[in-house]
Amino acid sequence: MHKSALTAEEEAYQFIQQQIRLGQFEPGMRLVPETIASQIDTSRMPVRSALRRLAAEGLVEIRANRSAVVRGLNREDMREVFEMRAVLEGLAIRNAVANMGPQAMRRLRGMLDLLAEDDIDWTTAHREFHEYLCSFCNQPRLLGQIAELHTVVEPYMRLWSAQPEHGLRARASHDALIEVLRTGDPQACEQAMREHVMRTVPALLAFLR
């Protein structure tokens, strides 16, 4: 049974995006549609469509000769992405906090405990923590924008999170965020989230230098 064009394009999109997120497709790497198509058993056209979609999201660059490469971030790009994340996640949590009850707070605490485990995929678990927290805003477009920004920086977060002592610093920062969430004050929560996101920037930029 043949895949529909939409299904094939979505499969190609999900595959390429995941490989970029995991750092398997590195910045500057040329993405050859024929090669990718053979890896997922599809034709070139769905792969080309997926690459155009990823280019629109800033993960891939389509060059003048129609070749596609994984787009990297320079220091200015990285700061811009985190500034956008800070504003959007601050907005999300301002609108989310009224919808968060004791059960949500307990789950967030459990997710933080998971982040402290040695054998965890920290970057994925960290993203899930932020996405769960923001999800209570119930604004799908806003959440979609936040998810795209997380995807753009994820390969760099994976490298950074492997540093010694990273986990201890991250736990303290997230504990502080949860304490503010307990107040239920929308403005305080928005400000705390903005500061929390931007707190990563100096260390991440220094590491990537």
From TrEMBL:
PROSITE patterns: HTH_GNTR. SUPFAM superfamilies: GntR ligand-binding domain-like (SSF48008), Winged helix' DNA-binding domain (SSF46785). Pfam families: FCD, GntR. The keyword Transcription applies. Residues 6-73 form the HTH gntR-type domain. One of its GO terms (molecular function) is DNA-binding transcription factor activity. Keywords: DNA-binding, Transcription, Transcription regulation. This is GntR family transcriptional regulator.
